[in-house]
Amino acid sequence: MNSVFCILLAAVCSLCAAQRGQVYNNPNEIPIISYVNDNNFDGSYRYSYETGNGISASEEGFLKNPGQKDLEAQTARGTYTYTAPDGQVITVNWYADETGFHADGAHLPTPPPVPGVAPQQPFPRGK
After folding, report:
1. Partners of residue 32 on adjacent β-strands
2. Which pTM value belongs to this model?
């Protein structure tokens, strides 16, 4: 009985003497300037945010052709902006629907132009 009491007393003392967790305080913390998040019962939604270091994003979406089994599709479109390490401001506009994801931005690579059709050459005829 005496040993159980000593063990319990040691456990209580160790709990009381436990150090508090350290609070993390980052002096470089980036503030959230604005934040919106709206979700609707019909499946549509809208969100956006902007941070103190110039990052921003927005998106909205809705259910296309609701109730039509084979035609129903979630559709979304949005944009995001940030500053690249080289100082260039990057903006991407995008949309996604039943055809896939499509992005547009001045920094995105584009395929080389397709050469035009060669003009028709006369076919040599035998004499």
Report:
1. 51
2. 0.64
